[in-house]
Amino acid sequence: METDRARPAQNAGEREMLTGWLEHHRGILIWKCEDLTAEQLRRRAAPPSTLSLLGLVRHMARVERWWFRQVFLGEDVPVLYDGSADDDVVFDEVDQADPAGAFNAFQQECAVSRQVVAQAPNLDVLSKQASEHTGQPWSLRWILTHVIEEYARHNGHADLLRERVDGRTGQY
Question: What percent of the chain lies above the pLDDT cut of 90?
């Protein structure tokens, strides 16, 4: 399976540029997980860290749902991988987690996020949910930029995790 990691056009409009970078980073995360066994996907970075590639996939599915559905649309959908008892449940509870289920949830949340962005009339549209800290809503532009930042940070982790699993490295 060849994962699409194409970079966005160098001279695109703002929406195309932001969604292009988001797709690029989604592809990188999947690429870093390709051709690995369930055990390899669950492998931790190094104690005391609980980071694993499977944990990152679960985390990013949760991030996609949180920002695009719960915050932006204000949907009353349950949090993926309930962390009420453990904030790091997506990382801590991977030993018995189903990789196929995690990748399916990730793909589903990305598909919904794509629809949310495509249906918004512009990037200035504000979220239904406001920040607990400022009381202000977020623009779709801010959310897209933040989610890209989240992927970029975690794809750095994914690169190191993959190298630890089988030595595979590669440029984004």
Answer: 76
